[in-house]
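Supplementary notes for students who missed Thursday's class. We covered one full example, reproduced here. Read the sequence, then the structure, then the short commentary at the end.
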Amino acid sequence: MLFRSKNIMNLENASQVELQSWEKKLAAKYQQFKDAALKLDLTRGKPGNAQLDLADAMEDLPKNKMILENGTDLRNYGGLDGIPAARKLGGEMLGLPESAVICGDHSSLSLMYLYMLHAYYHGSQGAETAWAKESEVKFLAIVPGYDRHFSICEELGIRLINVDMLDDGPDMDKVEELLSNDPQIKGMWCVPKYSNPTGCVYSDKVVERIAALGKIAGPNFRVMWDNAYGVHDLQENPQQLANVMDYCRKYGTEDNLILTASTSKITIAGGGISFLGASEKNLAHFRKRLAVMSIGPNKLNQQRHLLFLKNIEDVRSHMQKHAEILRPKFEMVQKHLESELAGKAMGSWCKPEGGYFVSFDSIPGLAKEIIRLSGEAGVKLTPAGATFPYSQDPEDANIRLAPTFPSVEDLDQAMQVFVTCVQLASVRQRM
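Structure (token representation):
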């Protein structure tokens, strides 16, 4: 949901004399920040130390519990799909049965990357379906979006086509139009709940339309459904995300869908477990790639997760502790945006109910300048353009704020700098 200022007269109606006076005051305030020699970082959506501390109890859990009831020794090779209980947990997070899930190591990004390599070079359902056989391969990029998704495609030489994110999800009229007219489009990236960076939750109607895309695009099209923030609610009674696989079954498009999730931002960043869910046909072909690169995942790590988080109820209870840590940080961001920028015609921003980011859109043409000013005042921000393919924001407007890692106190300082830079850049552009 986007928060847009209603009273937008100040900047637009200010006289040149008023603008000059405004700029002088802002410049003086900005110089004070520079003189303070701050070193603050809002570049990446990393869990804060207090969040990571919540999982400290995991460290010694596997001791004396390394052999399952069926005799499987978790210290040894094998178990390519992951241990059954881990697959079940992944299924509960993704809305799938255990049989439709593979449990892997550390991060879902690794599984997404491997799946894309698999589909591109080997074919998602056999060599004849390899995207590399096409003269050109294209993917839809919902923008603003997640830079790592775009990087995967860029590395493989897959051309990315921008589609705007609306308040309830991707612009589906545009998606359907593009797919109807271009058979070289082989997939699209989705972060369906608390989308990175806008915080958007896809509406039921959008989810259903995405599930039906295989009827338009054909069997070799893949929806990459990265539900990275599916349990990362900040508020009570959050908006629920519809089960996309249920809709796929309705349209007979189960093979067009690849779902991923992980515990990277639930337990230990870089030390979690990851999940990939798909139809049995997709999994059968994907296992061939897994069998070449691995003789099994880290099953001890899976076991310690299961001893710590036995089921989805445990996950949700644990995430309430995360929410208590994160909520004041997101409130601090909104406090500064609303108190200093509302009504000044200097931009718009999202007010997410979960996830890891706040998306800010400046006046077109100012994102790079705002980020430059912030950096020189000691506050590092995600580079301009990072939320678009090829790092090219056509409007030079979107800025991703990542409030999770700093302390509330540091975030307070950082946001003071940020809103000052937004105002300074906006006034100077108007002069």
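Commentary. The CA atoms of residues 304 and 430 lie 57 Å apart. Residues 1-9 have pLDDT under 50 and may be disordered. If anything here is unclear, bring it to office hours.
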